[in-house]
Design goal:
CATH class of the largest domain: Alpha Beta
Radius of gyration: 24 Å
Number of strands: 8
CATH topology of the largest domain: Aspartate Aminotransferase, domain 1
CATH architecture of the largest domain: Alpha-Beta Complex
Largest sheet: 6 strands, antiparallel
Oligomer: single chain
Distance between the termini: 38 Å
């Protein structure tokens, strides 16, 4: 895993059994008490996105995972936070901001204190049949058979395929 110069931000969470550090977007994500809380990004150099330039690196800072409904109150409390240019659903603390270290410490205190404004629940993984499972089901052969048949038989074959899919679920 990549070495992060500012990993000290997560120092409190390193030995905490309620915390999990995991790679995400080329950064280091903090999951705490089941929620995604922060993502440490250290990829300086990119300051432009979709034709707009920013006075900070857009992938060199701390992403604050939060719901949009909490943006105003967090920005009011911590004015150094901005909407992330690429991921505007989250707030962002650019390392270019003066005093960012103190702000990062304040954010980790909010996380440790279980501030409900910080954190999002990870999306559940789909529990459907994988493509590999469907591949072994014969549906691929059915599709090829459908292509060879005349248009008159196509509706019948389509309904057969739908029935097979339902049986697989």
């Amino acid at each position: 895993m990549k070495t992060f110069e500012n990993r000290w931000i997560y120092e409190f969470f390193e030995e905490n059994p309620d915390a999990l550090l995991k790679g995400m977007f080329g950064g280091l994500a903090l999951y705490y008490q089941g929620q995604l809380k922060l993502v440490l990004m250290e990829n300086p150099g990119e300051t432009t996105y979709r034709g707009r330039s920013y006075d900070y690196d857009i992938w060199n800072g701390l992403l604050v995972c939060t719901e949009r409904s909490f943006h105003d109150s967090l920005v009011k409390q911590i004015p150094s936070l901005v909407l992330h240019p690429v991921l505007p659903k989250w707030l962002y603390l650019p390392f270019a901001r003066e005093g960012w270290e103190d702000v990062a410490v304040a954010l980790t205190r909010l996380v440790r204190g279980a501030d409900p404004r910080i954190g999002v629940w990870p999306q559940e993984k789909r529990k459907g049949k994988s493509r590999r499972a469907l591949a072994g089901s014969g549906l691929g052969r059915e599709r090829r058979r459908l292509d060879k048949k005349s248009k008159g038989e196509a509706p019948k074959l389509i309904s057969e395929m739908k029935k097979k899919r339902k049986e697989l679920k």
